[in-house]
Design goal:
- The protein is α+β, with helices and mostly antiparallel strands and about 130 residues long.
- It is built from seven helices and four strands; from the N terminus they run E-H-H-E-H-H-E-H-H-E-H.
- The protein has helices at about 10-15, 20-25, 40-50, 60-65, 80-90, 100-105, 120-134; strands spanning about 1-10, 30-40, 70-75, 115.
- The protein starts with a strand and ends with a helix.
């Protein structure tokens, strides 16, 4: 059984889209095995985005991710990592296809509603990060 970490970002919470996004995941028949709402500590956000710390908008991304509550989930099922990433759409909401979460609801390049792990290895690292450190 494959697992992935999904974060519904502060813009999802502010725009009251939590239920809509969870429904899309559940309609794919995936199980949510853990779920919580937290404010991400800055140190954890910095560790999470460490791989892009050299891009010009890094500080803005950290400020955004720590600006309000997020919903963090562990989602499980067959081929869940690739399927959820397909469901989410491209990182830049303006380039995301209609029918994807970002294509349907996104209105920004980096404040893009949702995060999901991109590999089995990263999923396990991220699950430990957000369910052990937070």
């Amino acid at each position: 059984m494959e697992r992935t970490l999904v974060i519904l970002k502060p813009d999802t919470v502010k725009r009251k889209l939590i239920g809509e996004l969870i429904t899309r995941i559940e309609r794919k028949n995936y199980a949510i095995s853990a779920l919580k709402m937290i404010n991400i500590p800055r140190s954890v956000a910095e560790k999470h985005y460490e791989h892009v710390k050299d891009i010009p908008v890094y500080d803005d991304m950290i400020d955004f991710m720590t600006s309000g509550p997020v919903v963090i989930m562990v989602v499980e099922g067959e081929n869940v990592i690739q399927t959820v990433r397909n469901l989410i759409g491209k990182t830049n909401s303006f380039e995301a296809a209609p029918g994807t979460i970002r294509g349907d609801f996104g209105s920004s390049r980096y404040q893009n509603l949702i995060h999901a792990s991109d590999s089995i290895e990263n999923a396990e690292i991220e699950i430990k990060r957000f369910f052990n450190e937070c």
